[in-house]
Amino acid sequence: MARHARLKPEDFKAIFRAEWCGPGLARALPSDMDCLFNRTLGRTLGLSAFLTGLLFAGAAGAEEPVTTPSLDTQGKPLNPPAPTTGITPKLGGLSAFGGVMIVDMGPVNDRLQEYRALYPADLPVIFPLLGGQGFGLFSRFLIGGSGAGLLSRSVDAANDRKITASGAWGTFDFGYQLLRVNGFLIAPVLSLGGYGMNVTVASKGEVAFDDALQNPTRSVSLTNNGFLTGISLVAKTVLIGKPTAGTPNARTGWSLGIRLGGLYGFPLRGWRSNGEAVTGDPPFGLRGGYVALSLGGGSW
Fold first, then answer.
1. Are the C-beta atoms of 197 and 173 separated by less than 8 Å?
2. CB 221 within 8 A of CB 271
3. Average per-residue pLDDT for the chain
4. Per the CB 3.0–4.6 Å rule, which of 82, 222, 236, 253 could disulfide with 91?
C-alpha cells in the first residue's frame, strides 16, 4: 500500500484556504482513537446499566425496606474507612454521566479569523458531554476510571461547507474520601489519561458514491492527541436503596451524583492529517472545565 505523502510546507494555513472547487487534500481517515473510544463508550454505558441493575436487585433482596437518604446520621461516623476483601473493594459504583464542557478553542478560532471570508463564524466553545465512570473504595482511597465524548459542534462555512469539532478523553482516577455517611459520598479526584480532538472541514451537500470515489476532496480532517491531567470534585448519594448487607455504615441502590472539574491537556505531536504531521499548526491542548450529572448504582 502506498504511503501517504507528508503535507507540503505550505503549512497549516494552506489547509483552511485550500481550493474549494478544485483539487485539494484527500479526505482524511477517521482517527483510530475516535473509533476505539466510540466502541468503548458504548460498552461502558451498557455495562453500567447492567451492573447497576444487579446492584439494585441485590439490595431488593435484603430484609430492610427501600428508603431515601436520611439527614439524621444517628451517631454514625462521618468518614469510616471502606472495607475490602483482600485487594477487592466491597464498596464502589458505576454510573453514566452527561453534562457540558467549556473548551478553549481560541488557537483554532484565531486561525479561522484570518480567513473570515471562508469562515464567517468561530467554532463553539461549549460542548455536550456524555460518558461513564466507575470506582472502588479502598479504605478512604478511591480508585477507578472515567471516559467521555465531546459531542460534535459545527458552524457553516462558505461554498456550502461546514467546519466541525469533536473530541474524547479517558482517564484513570485517584481520589480520597472526605465524607461517607448514609450513602452520601464526597471525594476530590486526580485524573491522568489521554485525549483526542478532531476538526473537520467538509461539504454539506449530498454526493453520489461514484462521485466521491472519483473526486475524494470533499473534506479534510485534522486530529490532535495528547496526555491529559485533571482535577475534580465528586459528590454522590444513594437516592433509593437499602443498608448494605454485611457492611455497616453503607447503603446500596440507585445513585445520583454531580462531578465538577477541569482538564489540562499536553499535545504529543501537534495537529496531524491522515497520520502525517501538519506544519505551521497552532498550539492546542484539550483544556477547559466541565460539570456533569450522573445516574447509576453502587454501594458506599
1. no
2. no
3. 82
4. 82
Sign for the CA dihedral angle at 48, 87, 231, 73 comes to positive
Quote the DSSP letter at residue 67: B
Burial environment of residue 209 by CB neighbours within 10 A (0 to 12, 13 to 18, 19 or more): exposed
Distance of CA 92 to the CA centre of its chain: 21
Dist. CA 172–CA 42, nearest whole Å? 18
Give the integer Cα–Cα distance in Å for 52 and 30: 33
Angle made by CA atoms 259, 264, 268, in degrees to the nearest 5: 135
DSSP state of 122: P
Q: How far is CA 101 from CA 3, 168, 247, 255, 296, in A?
A: 37, 11, 37, 22, 21
**CA pair distance 240, 237, nearest whole angstrom:** 9
CA separation (Å) from 94 to 73, 118, 158, 162? 25, 45, 45, 37
Q: What is the largest CA-CA distance in the chain?
A: 76
Could you please state the CATH topology (level 3) that the domain comprising 11-299 is classified under. Answer: Porin (2.40.160)
What residue spans define the domains of the chain? Answer: 11-299
CA dihedral over 66, 72, 75, 77, signed as positive or negative: positive
**With bands split at pLDDT 50, 70 and 90, how would you rate the model's confidence at 290?**
very high
Q: Bridge-partner residues for 43, per DSSP?
A: none
**Residues 235-265: tens digit of each pLDDT:** 999 999 999 888 888 999 999 999 999 999 9
Q: Which three cell numbers stand for residue 187?
A: 471525594
User: Could you count the other beta carbons within 10 Å of the beta carbon of residue 248?
Assistant: 10
Query: Residue 228 and residue 139: Cα distance in Å, rounded?
Result: 27
DSSP characters for 91-153?
EEEEEEEEEEEEE--HHHHHHHHTTTTT--SPPPSEEEEEEEEEEEEEBTEEEEEEEEEEEEE
In Å, what is the CA distance from 70 to each residue of 82, 238, 241, 255, 293? Answer: 20, 10, 11, 14, 21
